[in-house]
Records
---
Amino acid sequence: MAGSFAEFRRRTFSSIMFGLCAAGSALIISILLLVIGYLAWIGVSSLSWEFLAAVPTGDVANPGGMRHAIDGTIILVGLASAVGVPLGVLAGIYLSEYPSEYAATGPLRFIADVLTGVPSIVVGILGYELVVVPVSRWTDSAVSFSGYAGAAALAFIMIPIVARTTEEMLRLVPQSYREGSLALGATRAQTIFRVVLPGAFGGVATGIMLAMGRIAGETAPLLFTALGSRLLTHNPAEPFPSLTLQIYTYATGPYPEQKRLAWAGILVLLAMLFVVNLSIRLIAARHARTRVGT
Amino acid sequence: MPVSPLMTQPPTSAKPQPEPPQVELPARKRPIASVGPANASGGQYPVIDAIKRGETPEPRRHESVMGVPSILEVRDFQLWYGQNKALHGVTMPIAEGKITSIIGPSGCGKSTLLRSVNRLNDLVDGVRTAGSISLKGEDVYARGVDVISLRKRLGMVFQKPNPFPMSIFENVVYALRISGERRKSVLEAACEKALRQAALWDEVKDRLKSSAMGMSGGQQQRLCIARAIVCEPQVLLLDEPCSALDPIATLRIEELILEIGQRYTVLIVTHNMQQAARVSDFTAFMYLGRLVEYGRTADIFQLPRLRETEDYVTGRFG
Ligand SMILES: Nc1ncnc2c1ncn2[C@@H]1O[C@H](COP(=O)(O)OP(=O)(O)O)[C@@H](O)[C@H]1O
Ligand SMILES: [Mg+2]
């Protein structure tokens, strides 16, 4: 009797816990579906060829499209990556491949971790104070908001993320690769660039894509650096548009037609992030295949 | 005369499983050939007892191994990992053009000795050495030695196959690439030659561009051997090359080692006595970082001078 009661209690408890977990998951999934569904519902109706191809008209009743902002985001992310990826990967190599006694990797790793957690608005202010203001002073212009300043802020966010993921991925490369290469008379640099880094390619690429996805969705670092623009410009020396900035401007403004564009912009941004994430998955899967047998 | 189809087909499960050839080991009760004065203490294993007390007794080096021309000279070599002394004054010549095996219980410093030859131990923090190891008369631990070019003169194969995550071709020619060789014809010729020497050419010639990771363990290890001999090293260092392989793959590697031994000097670490007996010309028995006995393989296995060696190679101790 007592035994079966304990059994009953155990089973009931187990069922209740399972129910709670399932309910929690269902809740989260439905919230996600709701958000995406709502976005799609509103956004798709505003999505058009014009949205993708046209630039703002200045007419609030018929505001045009977001071509300038889409291009702007792609260029900003590209510029930031051109700086942030090499620096981040090199920093990751340094953290992983050089012994900590003389390379002070401990403090560096700590700093990278702290930087990863810095709120992005702080990075925006830093970009303003360290890039925009000095450049204005040197060039004697009013205020030099620019795509370069925005890209610098984004790169600043990117570097510690790429550095730490690169480090972690390089650490997963078996020590036997390094020994095998060194035993054949390779230098440390040859070993890193010919064996270790290619061995971690999938992981490092995943980290880079994650960081690109992260900065593509940032608004705060661009507010005081790139500033945003209603013009189609490919010159990063000028105030520069981005999807997030344009969404922010339209969504917080009073005009319903612009708000509709903001919704469509969000949808496009999410679609871009989705593509990036999908490519991460594909790279990771390919990576897993090529590494079979290690 | 109808023949049952069942009769004509050999049973599919009866794949020939080649047994590794057995080596004649000394009979249990055979009297020990020579018992040195070290045995006078009355203990069963006086040399091992002395080593355990921290002493470094003079090893029994047979005249047969001291007389041959050597390519590698290990002289009073000592190595510490931090406070821990792993090699205690090892002195042994390695015969040129021959296969020498190092046997001994796990942790006795076999790998350490091997990795000291190509200075791979430099990578370990806190390693100190004393004494010398000379390759063709040049001390590899002398000041100003170019470790990179030293390692290019030596090939090494590790316990676990470690092909690089790249194509079979690129694995084989790696040593040439890092030396700056770009000519396709040179690389291709070297690749074919090394793969043929490693008895792998016929198996992989049609898929040189495919990843080395898809090969079997035995093939991977033969690839590693091809990679190690592509630059024709003066000495090939093998650290338990078969310990991660199944018996059939092991047999193939052993055949390969015998063949390669005709062209190269091979120094092979193994904890498999049979393997040492099968492949090597000379055998060194190590214990706790000391060389204990060193001589021709046939002598070590059939006429050892120490009871310790005899009991170790027959599996009664160790
Ligand atoms: N990287 C290392 N750091 C510290 N001690 C080591 C290291 N490698 C080996 N040792 C020690 O050195 C001794 C010899 O090891 P090793 O040469 O690997 O033996 P074997 O190959 O004969 O099994 C062992 O006591 C081992 O613990
Ligand atoms: Mg070992």
---
Amino acid sequence: MKIAKVKELLEAELLCSGEDLENEVFSACGCDMMSDVLAYVKNQAVLLTGLVNPQVVKTAEMMDMRCIVFVRNKRPTPEMMELAEDSGIVMLATSFTLFEACGRLYINGLRGEAE
Amino acid sequence: MDEALNFHYDVDGENFTSAGNASVQVKRKLRQLGFPPELIKRVSIAMYEGEINMVIHANGGKADVLVTPEVITIVLADEGPGIADVALAMREGYSTAPDNVRSLGFGAGMGLPNMKRYTDSMDIQTKVGVGTTITMTVRVS
Ligand SMILES: Nc1ncnc2c1ncn2[C@@H]1O[C@H](COP(=O)(O)OP(=O)(O)O)[C@@H](O)[C@H]1O
Ligand SMILES: [Mg+2]
């Protein structure tokens, strides 16, 4: 699924675009515990989360994730924006809940496990 | 890359916001040096978990990373409370992190097991009341 499609399905606002929105992502995870992301995530490229602190961006960067979606209208801080820009990570904000946002991506073909 | 490179960072224990900055820097340096992405990811995850631990459990410390063409060595040293029972601390899910740390997204008790999983060797030297030094290596080839 193209990152642009993720944005469209989630009716999301583009906060920063580190890479081309035409690029494809194949899997995602929804999680507020960065510890779990670090321990269980394999090659998921998209992180959906309701947590807002710089560790979210740093965790995504450590895991080579390429897109972070903040749910329930959460907004990253300027510091997080700067980190994401430097890391080339796309950040989106949606008004959907974590459950709803994950569901929308799932029924449209995005999966939890990388191919 | 012919020579060994050494990177040193002071990890601030007062400030959770800056936790992980040393790991972010190291990741970017390893990328510039052209190491394979999978190797960089292993080094990054292990170092990041260890760096976060120094901030949440030990009030900060020092991080040193030695990079040679053969092996990457990460040394994390703190003067925190030390670990009384290392075998217990290594257990998946064991955590003494307080609730405020959990609300920041950490404290699942997976850090030390994860550090071991992603590295080729991990050594823990620790003494209660004195501090902890963790040395991890990741082989390049
Ligand atoms: N640098 C450290 N200094 C003191 N105690 C530590 C340190 N690192 C880890 N620990 C102890 O080991 C436990 C397990 O660590 P870890 O597996 O990373 O889980 P978590 O950080 O989620 O608690 C911690 O809860 C803490 O009690
Ligand atoms: Mg930990």
---
Amino acid sequence: MSSKIELPPTYKDIEDLIRVDRLPTIWCPGCGIGIVLKTLLRAIKKSDIDVDRHVIVSGIGCAGRVSGYVRLDSYHVLHGRAIPFAIGIKLAKPELEVTVVSGDGDIVGIGGNHFIHAARRNHDINVVIVNNMIYGMTGGQVAPTTPRGARTTTTPYGNIERSISIPLLAIAAGATYVARWSVLHVDHMMNSFIKMFRHKGFAVVEILSPCTLFASRNGIELLQLYEILRRKCKIVSNPDPWESHIDIFGDKPIILGEFIEIERPSYEELVWSSIRG
Amino acid sequence: MQEVKWRRLPLNSNYAVAYAVKDCDVDVIAAYPITPQTTVVEKLSEFIANGELDAEMIHVESEHSALSAAIGAAAVGARTFTATAAQGLELMHEMLHIASGLRLPIVMTIATRALSAPISIWCDYSDLMNTRDASWITLIASSAQEVYDSVIQAYRIAEDPRVLLPVMVAYDGFIMSHTYEPVYVAENPEVIREFVPRRKTWLTLDPDKPITLGPIANPDWYYEIKYQQVVAMEEAYKVIKEVDEEFGRRFGRSYGVIEKYRIEDADIVLLTYGGLFGTVREAIDAMRKRGINVGGLRLRLWRPFPAEEIIESVKGKKLVIVLDRAISYGARIAGPVALELMSTMYRMSEKPEVLSVVVGIGQRTVTEEDIAEITALGMKYLEEKRVPNQTIYWGVRA
Ligand SMILES: Cc1ncc(C[n+]2csc(CCOP(=O)(O)OP(=O)(O)O)c2C)c(N)n1
């Protein structure tokens, strides 16, 4: 890519954290991942943690590309393996603020077991899951997060499987901070990102993000998918995780909010205190 | 016997796989998407959804699960299929040995791709070469038609009671998986199904006659059980040739275990595999016009290794140049096929020189000119009597 890309003025405050030389991104026009990236970088700036101490780890997928666009220490690891990689970093250098950013398929599909056990042990890392309800990077196949009935390239007449609800899974497994927003809820997203940096323990922030492939497979425009999110998302205080199931084309609202925020000693605290005696 | 009616379709190798799997009336497919394999599974999903193939498709959550599910299905007698590439094949590795150890006739296709790290979605054969010792029969095709035909043959080979080993059919990721070619597919798949009849040739789980698959084998028996796989590979060698010949008689196309191109009077032989052979053939024609006595050999069967045919074909030649698209790191001869060829030739009394060349890593383009230049280099080495006993890394910016 020879022509130099200039960021719009609205990016001035985070320009130093973006690897402008790697733009344009691989994301399709209208994709929500850029909003997550932008908000995350703003949150990093607003965190009381030195930028140099932030580390981004991602697995494979469209969302996983985030690690390649940040001017921070970042790691692009294997599909599904971002969490164990992040745990390794945190254990070796506990002073670092380690954030995983990856797709729904990456984290709760192929990497699901890591997610469960990292939550169980309450590892002091942050996990941002960009949930586009599909395997985006490989061209739109059914994922464990694809809502029942949705069409994908591998379910041409609709998915018959029940989808995973990320907040419910995270809480059941032992996560101590769990929130869900959509890319239309930037302020809330920002708050949750700042909270997850401060939180001592396994913090999960799920961001619902419209995917152009998901829309086209289901016979709607991408903007209509944004519209569905705008219409159906309902912010609830103290939401019930049992109500967190996503029914994208039905009448049930999509519940957003902070599902849990509790304190429990993190694995790192326990390890380091037992070593120090 | 019904005559086969062919339909000429524009298909890439991924779609050729899907048509073959459909025509073989597979029962269970379990797969996970990965570039450049993905469209195989998408096409099969379409066939199933449209009722053109009566099969179960399991959308598993990883390749480890994909092969595990195929193993489970094969263990109860289903005809199974899966497909993958690169990291997916690596993630399956543990299960590769389970499938062959349990002697289950699973068929899998590989759209070959370079391995991480660094991440590359492009073609080379490092993924396939890493499976060398997993006791899978491994065919490498070089055209979409051959892919279609090989998948059909693969079921016949795998399910033959003398064999009962899983079979991989590999082809170049992108270069073949995404390139359209005219392919003849059967309009009346019954004919294909006749060629791969349903026979219950392998031990399956059956509630009426309970058995255990895969229990512990202690030092007193483990070795003998593994030796049976050695014997099965030897048997497979015959069966693969038989099946290919019968396929030829029945359908008019056969490939052999190696393909020869203008080698009868050649002094120099270029040996390679997969889609690259097309370029090699073109390069040979061009060099022949310039009076260079060069011919080509294509390895279609990688495991079991077609030792006799190879020895026969290189006998009396002056130089064999092996073009490998994978690296065995730390080996002096780092091209996997070159290494295999040299050990196979060890006991030949008069043997040609061998030049091992690595090309096309991470899909670095290999042109006809590259082939011509490599050949010229080989000839120079030969003339100066100094063919190096180590691999040449063609075109690398070292
Ligand atoms: C072991 C392995 N299997 C398959 C793939 C192919 N692959 C790359 S990204 C991806 C899915 C991406 O979906 P998701 O994680 O939801 O992220 P998105 O692209 O939607 O952001 C897959 C299956 C891979 N890279 N590695």
---
Amino acid sequence: MSADGPMLPRLHAREHGDHPPFRYPDYKSTAARSPDQDLVSILATLSEATGPGPAWSEVSPEDADLTTNAGTGGVAIGARIIVTGRVLDAAGNGVPDTLVEIWQANAAGRYAHWRETEYDAPLDPNFLGVGQCHTDADGTYRFLTIRPGPYPWGNHHNAWRPAHIHLSLMGPSLGSRLVTQLYFDGDPMLHLDPIYCSAPPQSRHRMLAHYDHEVTEADWATGWRFDIVLAGAEATPVEQEEA
Amino acid sequence: MAGAGPGRPAPLGQTPSQTLGPFFGMLLGRPGDANMADESVAGERIRVTGVVFDGHGAPIEDGLVEVWQANSAGRYRHPVDDRDDLPLLDGFTGFGRCPTDHPTGSWSVVTLRPGQVPDGRGGLQAPHLNLVLQARGMLDPVFTRVYFDDELSNDDDLVLAGVPEQRRHTLVASRGDDVDGLATFHLDLHVQGEHETVFFDV
Ligand SMILES: [Fe+2]
């Protein structure tokens, strides 16, 4: 700590060129929900070098098995998958003990959700489609869930969202906040999806989960690997050595 | 700040942002997420509320507003903020979130009036909330701040000073009538258009 306050960690700016633009005409809802003005640069202060990740992780329960967490005693219908990977800062350090929240449609492509959808696909009473877990000391997270189905949406005629899982992470600092979507490598619908394609060509592949036979468990579930790289502050190790 | 310095490996490519979609608020919101401080926490409890609008002036009814702030002593609950001479307050993380209401687009949190935190340039920042706004139709999060119109220290705040003067008002919440005995501040967020909120490159 100095007279100016605590020593701040190294911050990695958001690489805007690797993220979607605010306005992406093929995704129609962006038209009126995208800023016109340029972002205003800001001092990197304690406000930007901290964030809710560490504190929020302490208070949030773990709930990493979406096949049973509806609490009905039954199990969700669909192809069981293990989704795992590491959460990394931009320097490649694992981000330990951070909350990962996911939400997704069921195997039929339907969200368990009160606002009615017009898509007439079955609900699964044993599947909420919501889960959360913490990364371990190495930054690794792991979920057991059901492979989600694609679903139609109203963006354009015959528009379908390819199968995807939404993920939300807080990370080490305010600027590491990330909400993204996991897609499945090899899905033939990806290039038709304006949300997937809103990410630039050189970075969109980072949203693909890859089949990993090492993760697959015999007679149980196929395994998919998905690593996540966050902007913002470099991670604080769980166990700090005395300098 | 980012980028490879001498002898430093190039940073990894960041995972692209994607829209929150319409379902987060319904599926993941938990009761109490927007009540950041109950009566037992030391400090002045306040309510901060507003409406989120799109570029047509229509309410954004499926958004998510997240708040990150220092406690009333001006300390963040975070390992980087190692000023142990300032208290951490039991029951207060400094984080809250509120899905915007369907169909009004309004959000509201009850929290502590934050204290001042260092600006890293030898001074103190005016009390402020850090806000993250996301919604369906927004492919990236936007970051802004909420200041309070009854704080004299706003005049000395380096971040506010870095904002074009004619746009500063988009960051300053105004105190209205108390609600349920709590000082209540109002600030609408405009994602686009004539009244567009200042968004920072955090
Ligand atoms: Fe979705």
